[in-house]
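Thread: quick sanity check before group meeting

JM: Hey all, I'm pulling together slides for Thursday and realized we never actually wrote out the predicted structure for the chain we discussed last week. Dropping the sequence here so it's in one place. If anyone has concerns about the input, flag it before I start.
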Amino acid sequence: MSPKKEPSRNYVQATLVTKQKAASDVPKPVKKPEITSDAQVDPKASPDSNSNISEVDTEADDDIYSDPKQLIMDDPYTRSGKVKMDDFDLQIYHEERSKLKLDNDQPNPVFEKLYANIPESTKKILWIANGPHKNFEYFPPSAAKQVHGYIEAHDELSALFETDELEPGTPESFRGQLDLFNTYSSFTPKQRYHYLEWLSNPHAGEEFQYPWLLYQGMERHMVLKNLDVAFHWFEFIVYTLDYVELGGYLFSDTLYAYAKFKKIKYMRALIDPKDLDSRDLLLYKLLIEAPFDADDVSYWMWKVGLPENDLDFTTLKEYTALRSYYLPLAIQSLYGTLNFKFPSTLKPKIYINSGIGENEVKSGFNQYFFENISTDLERQRIMWVQPMNESDEFKNAIKELVHTTAEFIRIEFKRRKEKGLKIRNAKVKNMYNPFADQTDKN
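JM (edit): ok, ran it. Output follows.
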């Protein structure tokens, strides 16, 4: 997986100008292992019936944008479609654009030959900064560096330039050095040539800087609400091409789709809970409203702040075997089932970074961010999530289960004492059953 970089501290406003139609004929990924969820799959809900994303979308949200005129972030800073700069910024901007030949719309024969071999479905999702196929207004990296003093500030990492030199032949190895090869323009001429060849037939087996670059371009589509396209390609890259190194950002991407656009179907379809740590697994289950079981409660009961001298806490800590026996019964007694769901109102508080040029740290919150570190996406890419063990509603629900379990254990102890039975090592068949009339079977 590519290293997660800290976001820059400077925000550079950029404009996204799209002349192309959103892709509908995206690659058809194979299905990943079945994921337990309540989602109902409808092959007619998407142009790609082979994708896990193809399910009925019943979420209360407007349709995904397909009009290229609407592929502008729903944001007051970009809605006008113009780059907002003062006179000094504009001077530097135009000087740097001239150096990069961004205004050169003349075709490059080598680029055009390679580009012609790329399928139409792939061409539709590429960001191109100059030349006849230009669809993106690029803000030069050195301009951002000069104006704002941040050495890594740059615009869309995956943007293609017709004016960049291309050279056939065996490309140089990246040797895992992501920081030195983090944009298309930072590739060597042979690497750029090979990347364009790879785009004509994306396949497994390459160094992952190539799919990594394409993945980041899809995150821009995600921010622009071109969601189906972005997540079909995420699925294709991570699961079909098996670039699992890139899958570490997929949870953050699906979290963003939920937090920004109230779309949970991507998390349902693409995230395998077996790949998540305990923190993300809890967040995942709450968001998709998946059932919890005794194992989940057993983990989180120690994380909700019960004092160590609390009677319920000490009872469950000391009598582990009885805890394992009575916790499922406590769940059943409170929820009527061994696999229960928390109320739909119990959702984590998620904030998308709202500061301009600020890494807005929220103390005590968990940070999530997607990989694309382009300057104009900085405001969008960072999310803060309140830990659920800080939620009073969650803590109270867990504490109620802890208390009920401890009560069952205490009732069992009282019964044993009254019957003159051993406190420890009693047979399960003789234990107190809160769901049955007890008769003395001893």
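AS: nice. The CA atoms of residues 429 and 441 lie 8 Å apart. DSSP finds 15 helices and three strands in the chain.
JM: adding both to the slides.
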